[in-house]
Every structure is written in C-alpha cells, then in structure tokens.
Design goal:
Residues 270-335 form the HTH luxR-type domain. By secondary structure, this protein is of the alpha/beta class. It has helices spanning 37-42, 44-54, 79-90, 105-115, 138-150, 152-163, 169-182, 185-197, 224-233, 254-265, 279-289, 294-301, 305-319, 324-335; strands at 3-9, 15-21, 25-30, 57-62, 97-102, 120-126, 211-216, 238-242.
Length: 349
C-alpha cells in the first residue's frame, strides 16, 4: 500500500500536509500530539497499524501545523485552530466520512462531530479525554511542560515511557527520536499545553453520529475514567475497553484494536485462517520467507527479539515444521510470493 501526499493552505497562509492511503469510503484520522507523515510510514509498527486499518477504506491523515511536513504555526495552538486545519483537509474529500481521533485528536474529533454533524458518518475515539486538566495533577503537568522546554531530548524519552511502557528498549529509543524529529521543543510544549487545556464537555451532548469509545484500561497517559466520561456524555456511545497499558495505538496488541474499530465501521474483519496462524504470525512467516533473521523481524514489526523468536517457534509448531526453510517454502507456496533476490554479499536485504 502506498500513501499519496498533498497540501492545503489555511487562511493565514500556513500549509498543512496530508496523506491518503487505500481506496474506498473515506476515514479521516486525527493524529495525536505529534506526527510525521513520512517517518510514521517508514516505521514498520505504525505503518502496519495504518495499513490494517485502511484495507477497504481510504485513510486520510495529516500533520497539524508545526509538525512533520506541515509548516510552523502562524499563531498559538487552540481548539479553533485545530478545527480550521481539519476543515481544510476534509474539504478535499467532498463527501461525508468516518472520523477517528486518537489521543489529543479525540477531543478535536468530538468538537468537529458536534459542530459539523452532517459531515460525520461514524465517530471513533481512542485514548481520548473530556477534560485535559484531569489527565494529571497540576504539578505533574507543569513539570512535564518544563522538562520539554528545558531538555527536549530527556522530555521526549520520559513521555515515551508513559506512552508505551510495554515497548522494548529499541522501540522506546526509536519513538523518542521520532518525537524530536516531529517538531521543535517549543511546538511540542505548546501542543501538550493545549492538550491539558482542552475541555470538550460542552460538545458531548451535541454529538449525534454513532460513536465508539475505545480505550486501554491501563493507559498511563489518559486515565480510563476519561473514556467512561466520553461514553457517558455522548448519547448512545458504544464503549470498548481493551486490556493493555500502551497509549500509542500501534503499540501493544494493535490487532485487537483494529478488529474492534473495523467491526464498528462496518469494514471486513480478518479472521483466523484455516492454517491456524494469527495475522501477526502470518506477518512473521512472510518476513521469514524474505530471509529475515529474528532480529530483523523484531525491527520490522517493532517488537523485541525474544518475541520474534517466540512467534517463529509457535509458527513452526502450529504447522508441524522442523525448520525456518520449511516455513519459507510453505509461505511462498501458499501466497505465491517469492523471496527477494539476495543483497550483495549473499545476505538478506
């Protein structure tokens, strides 16, 4: 799957970059705190989540002003400015769409659905909140903002530990670098301050679109009480509480999250095939067929090497094979995909 990049211009002259992937009914995705359309597409874990989400749909994402491929903001971040950017991006679609907001994008999506109900078919809120001031105590919020301002490197690492506590060391290091590549320290601080200031409680009664509120029960960045407040405040909202601690949607068991979201949106949900492999195990089998080592599989999928080794062993036992070569041959025979030509020097690419 490829993503196609485009740009829109706001009234103040700021350009906002957006990306489309897949084909079908549009699903507009309001990103969390920081984003980078190109770097996120290069991340195996994050891209895998977006591709799984967008099969049979057209996924539209964008970098808010000051992040990733979008120009720096011309004014202080605010909910009104967030809605202005979303308006410019959705103007390129020209039809009603499904809307999904994650993390900071969730309250933004709530405000949009409440004020533009005619545009939203279905609304999905993941890892969101009603009142940002209730995410942490005032002293904690001030300390985090101060840390970002004083030492963006350390601040990004601390926030990564909060956002993805179950990720291995390599993935945490990668996400810390990713956050720093997304924006400057000043922009990161300003956007996080906006997250804490957001209060969409007045908008909840005006959301009329069918709504799914999905949240991981152990989320350390957004307490599950905020998900309950969203579900209780929106008429006929459907709550879905999933196990896990990761705030990042593509960390942890993202397959389960994707299935819940796709089922709500009326998109086909992948089931276990007759071969008995899970979706993740088929991904691992494909990488084995391409000659990847356990370390390379772990890097591609954003998991630790021991987890990759466990997947390989379970695949071998499930299929009754004795070697990786048998797994590779089976996958090629099943799916008609041949391994790539060996890289110079005889090793896998």
């Amino acid at each position: 799957m490829r993503q196609r990049l485009g740009r829109v211009r706001l009234a103040d002259g700021t350009t906002v970059a957006y990306a489309s992937a897949g084909a079908g009914r549009p699903l507009v995705y309001v990103m969390g705190w920081l984003s980078h359309l190109e770097l996120s597409w290069e991340s195996a874990a994050e891209r895998g989540f977006y591709e799984a989400l967008s099969r049979g749909a057209r996924l539209v994402r964008y970098d808010r002003a000051g992040c990733g491929l979008s120009a720096g903001p011309a004014r202080t971040p605010s909910l009104a400015y967030e809605l202005e950017q979303l308006d410019a991006v959705t103007a390129t679609i020209g039809e009603p769409f499904d809307l999904m907001g994650t993390s900071m994008g969730a309250p933004v999506a709530v405000a949009w659905a409440a004020t533009r109900p005619e545009t939203v078919r279905r609304l999905v809120l993941y890892g969101g909140w009603v009142r940002g001031a209730e995410l942490a105590t005032e002293s904690v919020r001030e300390n985090v903002l101060g840390l970002i301002e004083a030492h963006w490197g350390l601040g990004s690492n601390v926030l990564t530990d909060i956002f993805a506590p179950d990720a291995d060391r390599a993935m945490r290091a990668e996400h810390g670098r990713y956050q720093r590549a997304c924006s400057s320290a000043a922009t990161a601080r300003a956007l996080l301050a906006l997250s804490y200031d957001l209060d969409v409680s007045p908008h909840l009664p005006h959301v009329t679109a069918p709504t799914l509120v999905v949240h991981r029960t152990g989320d350390r960045a957004a307490p599950v009480a905020q998900a309950r407040a969203l579900a209780e405040g929106i008429t006929n909202a459907e709550p879905a509480l999933l196990p896990g601690r990761s705030h990042l949607p593509y960390a942890g068991d993202h397959d389960q999250l994707v299935r819940v979201v796709r089922r709500f949106l009326g998109l086909p949900v992948a089931r276990r095939r007759a071969d008995g492999l899970t979706a993740r195990q088929r991904e691992v089998a494909e990488l084995i067929s391409h000659g990847c080592t356990n370390r390379e599989i772990a890097a591609r999928l954003g998991i630790d090497e021991r987890s990759a080794e466990g997947h390989v062993e379970r695949i071998r036992l499930r299929l009754g094979f004795r070697s990786r070569a048998q797994i590779a041959a089976w996958f090629t025979a099943q799916w008609g995909i041949s391994p790539p030509d060996p890289a110079p020097g005889g090793g896998p690419r």
